Amino acid sequence: MPLSTPSRRALLTAAVTAPAAAVGAPLLAAPAGAATPVRGVGVGLVHPWAPLVLAPDVTASADVPAARVVRIAGTDFLQLRGGVVCALTAEAALGTVPATLAVPKTSRGVCPRNNKAGVNACVVEISTSGRVTVLGATAANAITWVTLDGFSVVLA
Description:
The protein has helices spanning 8-17, 20-23, 25-28, and strands at residues 36-38, 41-51, 53-54, 59-60, 66-72, 75-81, 83-88, 92-96, 107-116, 119-126, 131-135, 143-147, 152-154. It is mainly beta.
């Protein structure tokens, strides 16, 4: 009987729902290639949480924005956490990911934002230079806060 491989959906679900204990402190001392099985899927920490460098007009919320890279079943995922308070009326930079974290391609994800006129999500984009940009704000529909906790993209 052939071995089954996890589907892309299973990998993405594991990336978003991997418990912090599986990729947290115990793996920080382990080499980058180390993996701990989570429900049969190898999970390893490639780059630990590191704070984002925020733009001058952006303020961190109680949970300081940070980025990390985890490897799940051989696939690297860039994940963000935390939140920001801002006053965006157009496309604008939130800041940059740490210089030690290489982003090989422009990556986009949808993140929660303040609910204005029924719009409660925005697009967050990370460029290859590491610039984190929020898309979707207008003068009539300003973005006053963004939560980055749901941001998880494949880095391949």
